[in-house]
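S.,

Sequence below, as promised.
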Amino acid sequence: MKRRSFLKSSFLLSNSVLIPENFLFNNKPNLKVGIIADVHQDIIFDGTKRIKKFLKDANKFNVDFVIQLGDFALPRKVNQKFINNWNNYKGSKYHVLGNHDMVDFGFKKHETMKWWGMNKRYYSFDKGGLHFIVLDGNDKNPGDWNEYYYRYIGAEQKNWLENDLRNTKLPVIIFSHQSLDANYGVKNRIEIRKIIEDIKFENGVQKVIACISGHHHDDYNQSINGINYVHINSASYKWVGDKYKFSRFSKKIENKFPSIIKTCPYKDSLYTFMTCDFSKGEIRFEEKISEYIKPSPTDLGIPNSEQMNPLISEMKFKYSKD
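The prediction came back faster than expected:
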């Protein structure tokens, strides 16, 4: 089954999360959230154009807040125009730290956070009857791991997560960069999932509705033990590496952005708008479709390229009143 078909069938037909009826506010306006992931301003040549389009559409959609899910932009002078566009957005806005937002170009986590204006690396907030948690999946790997990038949630953050979940009386959505469900996501994801599955409301209903991540540059969802895990596709490209690198752009562009030849870039920026419809007890994600700047992964003969789609699918799932 193609991934897009899997997404639609899994979201539209099978996903149902039990939420206490008193959390379904019939007279409450919908909560709207703009979500963008993996812009990679330091790899893609037109990241500023992509973020401007997202924020322009966020204004049109009249969202309650926007959030970027990491791998955003490093604190380099050449990225000042990019971050100015984000900072000049008048609405509420939130950051998630990605693995490329540190280490690359020699930058440290605290330098990127300062440049973004991000006060805490993990945190939570309430909006419109929901509790949102932002995790930092970039804690230091245990000493016996030999990996270039961190992808771990350590003891301090785990304790904070458990306490935060226990203390909220609202349904919860968790944002992270690395996913909590897939290979090459958070390394100790099973341990983290156990925390979020075990903490429930007094009537036994799970507090966590969904976990939303970027990082994987794919359009994907699965449900594990009643919790939806949603991957938001990259705003910019699919990474294909040295084996399938291809020169599409001018020497000027490729000298300035040398890693772009190792990608299959999307023609238009991808992002989505999530609507939390309290009257229906439903969460919806808007579809966004682009196309590859040729050649595509299929043109390059990449295995399983039929699953590499430059899109974010229309998705929805309900939380039951039962």
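The helical segments are 3-14, 47-61, 80-87, 109-116, 155-167, 189-198, 251-256.

Coffee later?
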